[in-house]
């Protein structure tokens, strides 16, 4: 992408497949108004049967939230989420009373990921039938480690490398930047977060597992936050647009040297 171009609008660049991509997690999520029946085992049975061939393992997960007042806790609430995973444990679908998400640690292509998302949306529409979408989001997270971390100023553009491209990098223990952009062509937003994190640390414990060495994280989250009718085809089309915009921003960030090191260019 030319230095004067913006990754926030215009057609996305052609994909360059990476043989050894540093992509550690990809997530798509749709949020809708609360459907309390989702917590009922018998209610979610038909949804489980619809996706069980692809995601045969089901593990319920309970979480509790506490509302605090001036004199201490006022109330507690317990929520149940249903986590379905494939046999390898590298794909997971989560059904909760107010959202559905699909995520993977073994991403192969945009088409495959969005096709899987569309299929579970179809099953959600048939068996849970949310009427409204409140938020749609797609998120890609990359992690750079080891020798590539030491070469970071050659892998990303100077505006992103920042202090890590200066002599101060030697003593930069933790450095994280975040910017929220408008997406002028899709009525959405893109939140980009990047930076160096120390060993056994993370920018987001819910999405990025810590590792036992320093790393550099690129976390790009594109989303639309507006209420609209639940339409599988429209949600799928919008998810593709968000994923393409994420890729445009990713290509703006990284250099040709990044692509060479991760198997994208000869």
What does this structure look like?
With 266 residues, the chain is an alpha+beta fold. It starts with 22 loop residues before the first strand and ends in a 5-residue tail after the last helix. It has seven helices and nine strands, in the order βαββββαβαααβββαα. β7 and β8 form a beta hairpin. Strands 2-3-4-5-1-6-9-8-7 form a nine-stranded antiparallel β-sheet. The relative contact order is 0.20. The model has no long low-confidence stretch (mean pLDDT 91). It has helices at residues 41-51, 110-127, 146-150, 152-155, 158-161, 232-253, 256-261; strands at residues 23-31, 57-69, 72-85, 91-96, 99-104, 132-144, 175-183, 188-197, 215-229. 26% of the residues lie in helices and 36% in strands. It is globular and about 60 Å long.
Task: Note the main attributes of this structure.
alpha+beta, nine-stranded antiparallel sheet, 266 residues, single chain, 36% strand, 26% helix, 9 strands
Q: How is this structure best summarized?
A:
This protein is α+β, with helices and mostly antiparallel strands and 266 residues long.
- Helix and strand sequence: EHEEEEHEHHHEEEHH
What is the count of helical runs?
A: 7
User: Could you say which overall geometry the principal axes of the C-alpha atoms support?
Assistant: globular
Major beta sheet summary = 9 strands, antiparallel
- Report the β-strand fraction as a percent range: 35-45%
First CA to last CA: what distance?
A: 18 Å
Q: What share of residues is helical?
A: 25-40%
By secondary-structure content and strand pairing, the structural class works out as alpha+beta
Q: Radius of gyration, Cα only, in angstroms?
A: 20 Å
Strand tally, please? Answer: 9
Strand order of the largest sheet: 2-3-4-5-1-6-9-8-7
How would you state the average pLDDT, rounded?
91
Oligomer: single chain
Low-confidence stretches: none
């Amino acid at each position: 992408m030319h230095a004067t171009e913006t990754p926030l609008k215009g057609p996305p660049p052609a994909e360059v497949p990476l043989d050894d991509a540093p992509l550690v997690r990809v997530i798509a999520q749709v949020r809708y108004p609360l459907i309390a029946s989702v917590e009922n085992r018998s209610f979610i049975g038909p949804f489980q049967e619809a996706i069980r061939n692809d995601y045969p393992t089901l593990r319920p997960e309970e979480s509790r939230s506490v509302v605090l007042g001036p004199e201490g806790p006022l109330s507690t609430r317990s929520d149940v989420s249903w986590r379905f995973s494939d046999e390898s444990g590298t794909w997971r679908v989560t059904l909760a009373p107010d959202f559905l998400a699909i995520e993977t640690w073994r991403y192969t292509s945009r088409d495959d990921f969005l096709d899987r998302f569309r299929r579970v949306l179809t099953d959600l529409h048939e068996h849970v039938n949310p009427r409204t979408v409140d938020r749609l989001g797609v998120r890609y997270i990359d992690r750079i480690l080891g020798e590539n971390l030491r070469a970071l100023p050659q892998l990303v553009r100077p505006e992103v490398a920042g202090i890590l491209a200066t002599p101060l990098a030697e003593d930069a223990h933790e450095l994280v930047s975040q910017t929220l952009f408008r997406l002028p062509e899709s009525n959405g937003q893109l939140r980009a977060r990047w930076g160096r994190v120390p060993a056994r640390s993370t920018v987001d414990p819910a999405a990025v597992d810590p590792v036992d060495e320093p790393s550099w994280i690129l976390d790009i989250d594109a989303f639309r936050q507006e209420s609209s009718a639940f339409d599988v085809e429209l949600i799928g089309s919008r998810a593709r647009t968000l994923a393409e915009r994420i890729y445009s921003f990713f290509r703006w960030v990284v250099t040709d040297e990044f692509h060479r090191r991760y198997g994208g260019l000869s």
